[in-house]
Amino acid sequence: MAQTAVAIAGLGAVGRVVARRLADGIPGLRLAAIAARDRAKAQAWLDRERISCPIIELGKLPQHADLAVECAPPTLLDAICRPMLLAGKTVMVLSAGALLPRSDLMELAQTHGGQIIVPTGALLGFDAVAAAAEGKINSVRMTTRKPPKGLVGAPYLIANRISVEGLQQAKRVFSGSARDAAAGFPENVNVVAALSLASIGPDRVTIDIWADPTLARNCHSIEVDADSARFTLSIENVPSENPKTGRITALSVIAALRKLHAPLRVGT
Predict the structure, then answer these.
(1) 3-state class of 150 per DSSP?
(2) For a surface tag, which of 65, 86, 258, 264 has the fewest beta carbons within 10 Å of its beta carbon?
(3) Is the pTM of this model over 0.85?
(4) Alpha helices in the chain (DSSP H)
(5) What is residue 189's predicted lDDT score, i.e. its pLDDT?
(6) Contact 62, 155 (CB under 8 A)
């Protein structure tokens, strides 16, 4: 079986899980490189995990990999995607919110034969949404409820002087479009950006975001009304060591990678 060389850009909570799984072995894939801001810290972690893998600069990703998994802050999206797409290669993007204003990256992929993959991440039901989008979707609404610490530091909260500290009951901190939510909460609601890309676009998909001190999990629900079906889906995600990200996000990346060479693919 031909092997796909995979690089991981960012060695945080998600990147470490994906690196471990690739190092353990996934048919048709090999861990080719790691790009990390703190090279010394990354090397120490690789040594502890007994993973042999070069640590490289972002600009050198195309020289080492056929596919790069973006597990980095949204501000680095361009530095990760552009070199890979110019080389006609593939990028798996987790910072889906950062993609919304970057139509140039999609054009770059089309022009040079590259590809951008957005995995399901922390949300469910994308198969049903994508199928419904082949017909007519009338509306998509999402509600996200997170423990307050999972929202701390969001630019929208800072700009509007909204505090989520010391809450005794649930507080709605945002209501609006997926586009505005992605801009105001760039590390918190990539799920709604991905949902909008899979359905009716970031200006028509709407979302309410709640800070809820009674929760220990990140909860998402979506309501879709289409000419083919009407459905409501809900999920409760266990946070990873990074409270902004659910554990299932890394597993979603691994599942998407495994499908690349799987003899049987289930799902749209």
Answers:
(1) helix
(2) 264
(3) yes
(4) 13-24, 39-49, 61-64, 77-86, 96-99, 103-112, 126-133, 155-159, 178-184, 190-198, 247-259
(5) 87
(6) no
pLDDT digits (tens, 9 = 90+) for 91-104: 999 999 999 999 99
Encode pLDDT of 209-222 as tens digits. 999 999 999 999 99
Q: Which residues pair with 152 in a beta bridge?
A: none
* Structure-block tokens of residue 211: 């800070």
Give the orientation angle of helix 190-198 with respect to helix 126-133, to 10 degrees: 30
Q: Catalytic site residue 261?
A: no
**pLDDT score of 18 more than 80:** yes
> How many CA atoms are closer than 13 Å to the CA of 74, on its beta-carbon side?
20
Q: What structural domains and CATH numbers belong to the chain?
A: 4-121+248-259 (3.40.50.720), 126-244 (3.30.360.10)
pLDDT computed for residue 1 by the predictor: 59
The number of beta carbons lying within 10 Å of the beta carbon of residue 55 is: 15
Query: Which helix (DSSP H) or strand (DSSP E) does residue 30 occupy?
Result: strand 29-35
70-86 mean pLDDT: 95
Catalytic residue among 64, 112, 220, 261: 220
